[in-house]
User: What shape does this take?
Amino acid sequence: MYDLADVRPDTEIDPGTNVLVAGPPLTGKRQIALDILASGAQRGDGTIIVTTKDSADKVLSEFTSIVGDVDDASVGIVDCVTKQRGIGSVEDDPRIKYASSPVDMTGIGIKLSEFLQEFYEVRGLTQNRIMLHSVSTLLMYSNLQTVFRFLHVFTGRIQSADALGVYVIDSTAHDDQTMNTLKQLFDAVIEVEEGDGSEPNIRTAGFPS
Assistant: This one.
C-alpha cells in the first residue's frame, strides 16, 4: 500500500494507482507531488521522476533538499530536457536516463520501463513511486490524441508494476474538454487551488474514504 503524505494522511492507496495533481500555476501542485514521492523515499520506496520542464540536476537537488541524503540506487530521473537544449553531450548513468525531447514519447516510455525493470530485478525495490512533471509540457509539443495514447500506456505500466503514479498538470492551460478527457485515465484527482493564506486549498476525488 502507498500513502499520500500530508495530502490525506490517513489514506492508504492500492498498488497500481494513478493520481492526477491539477491546479493553476504557483499553487504548489508540484511540491505536493514531490512530497508524496519524498514520503515514500523516506520509508524505502523507489523514486522515478520523468521531467519535461527542468534538467535532471535541478530535479535531483530539489528532491534531495526535501528528503535529505537518499540512496543513489533508489532514485531514477528520466530527463526529457537536456538533450533538447543541446548543451554538451550527455550519457545515461545509474541515476539519469535521457530522452531526446518531450516529443519523444516512445523514448520516454522505454527509459521508464528500463528503470522499473532495474528497480525490481536488480535493485530489489518492489514499491516505487513515479512522478511525471508535467503533462502540460507534453500537450505543448503534441496534440491531445497523441498525449492521451502515451498516458494510456504510461498509466498501464504503473498499474502492471504495482507502483504509484503521480502526474502534474496546469489545469488553467487547457480547456475543460481536454481536462475531462485526460481525467478518464486516472484513478483519483487532487485539485489544488490558491488558498486565503500561504496554504493552498486541496480537494480530492476518487480516493477510498
About this structure: The first strand starts at residue 2 and ends at 4.
